[in-house]
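#struct-help
A.M.: can someone run this one for me? Single chain, 265 residues.
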Amino acid sequence: MLDDFLVRAALAGLGVVLAAAPLGCFVIWRRMAYFGDATAHAAILGVALALGFEISIFVGVLATAVGMSLCLNLLSERGHSYDASLGVLAHSALAAGLVAVSLLGGVRVDLMAFLFGDILAVDKGELAVIWTGGAIVVSLLVWRWNALLTATLNPDLAHASGISPRRSDLVLTLALAVTIAVALKVVGALLISSLLIIPAATARVAASTPEAMAVIAALLGAGAVIGGLWVSFQLDSPTGPTIVCVAAAAFAAGNIVQGLRGAAR
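D.P.: on it. Structure tokens below:
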């Protein structure tokens, strides 16, 4: 079954969204959308470092994403504007990564694949890495769900309950870094945030509880992957961007339905 590239592509996409969509709920609740985007931009720098030092791309991207998160926390603690720090680090990391890739001698790099993904070229080894990373993220979220939710909704209540908001931030940072590292092959550095944000934002329209929002987001993400692969096959369009377009269409449809229901009432 895994010899079929479409099957591998579908499994790779599902492995990413089943972790990214529930994590995206916390990204939305905490208003961290730009934080996810900034961390994703650092992925290209991680690719360049991995190729330069001849290590695993997954390890390079993961290390760079974690480093970006730590730098952001350090700058915010020193009084720098969070938005300004995000903007500086995001664009600096992306630019530095592009320059570093161009300076790599004797290494052939398909930059478009890293920027926009190459899900159809996922092999069995990469598929194993994607599902392992996705399982780690889901396990972290399930294990720390109540603590993460309490720290997100009411930090003061979290303190009173003996929950450390800083530890919750660290868990989310690590989960986000792992998700970005495994999603790079599927949708690329420039579109990773879309799989975090769009399914969760769509699920917010229909969900009545946080748990329901996470489940619905995962289902919507899975539908976007399967639908995007089918549309891409029919139209011969780039697969990663097509998956994002299908997810965006679902978001638009959900808001239209909500608007019509509101008007009917």
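A.M.: thanks! The radius of gyration is 18 Å.
D.P.: also worth noting: The chain has twelve helices and no strands.
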